[in-house]
Amino acid sequence: MPRKRVSDSPDSGSPSGEPVYLVVGFLRRPHGLRGELIMDVHTDFPERLRAGTQVFLGDEHSAIKIASARPRGDSGLLVSFSGLVTPEAVGHLRNTWVYVPAADRPPLPEGQVYHHEILGMSVITDDGRALGTLTEILSTGANDVYVVTSAEGKESLLPAIPDVVLSIDAATREIKVHLLEGLLD
Question: Is residue 182 part of a domain?
């Protein structure tokens, strides 16, 4: 199975490097005659995408309210937006990313973090050796894989499993890892 890149947002803009917006969906094409669009869902919290929710569309992050949302298949929604009631009115939204403000993200259970919160953190071993910076997170299906880039530009792949990732410290922006035998050979 090919590895899929995971990114909660292609945008960054706050002084701390935290994304201003997070991707929650991708509008495919108009559906039916009532101004609905097929939307691929890119969030673990699709329940927040309901009538009355304000979202932001495209690179310009244009604000708009969802008028209706209903399930479509296993990983999609049929959505309509306030004031857009025909297929012609929503046609220009085809192939558009849908965002929400990062500040509106739901809290996660204890011990869990959003990917964008840990990207850029320093990665050190449990014996104090600096490995580099977490530059990318790959989703492989079984578990995430952290791509750690050294100062020399060498990439290492670390499985994001409890035996390897020992702790994530938001205050120091460090991830402590234990290298299993053969991981970096």
Answer: no
